[in-house]
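Model it.
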Amino acid sequence: MRVPQDAIAHDLGVSRIPVREAMIVLEREGWVTIEMHRGAFINALDEQSVRDHYELFGLIYGFAAQRAVSRAAADLPKRLADIQARFARATESDELQRLSIAFHDTIFEVAASRRINVALRAMSALVPGNFFASVPGAVDVEKRGFAAIVRAVQKNDGDKASAEYARMMRRVGDKVVQLFEERSLFESAAITA
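Modeled.
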């Protein structure tokens, strides 16, 4: 479906330039495709796109975990184990969300790589709002995944930590695909394409 950029600019009371800049950002994130002299078109959301999205998250997080282990921060295993233990006991979706972010942020902090942070910021969330309140089964996947990542970090095994991150994010992607299928979001995208 073509994005009516002029109509959007008119409705928002702005010039076409900020709308065009927004389209460029959305293209970078994979939500639209800009075709020269034709305009911007919405990309359909399909199962493979969702799976690719979470595979990429797994690669980025895994690479960060590898870097964090190689940087040999003495307190990293304890910090991650503390967060993982609190995550394992948590029952409220807001607390789970906060602790999940803290776990990932700790990995990124120790990895200390601006390039990794840039790559992660280029990706947007597919599930709006509180992820754990929206995606059934994701809590259990991350509980097992965080525990496996912590074990790898405690053994100073960056490759294993990376592999466990990739495995966890692949399983999270499976849960998101299942949710989207149950809500017929893929069918809706196919109908409008």
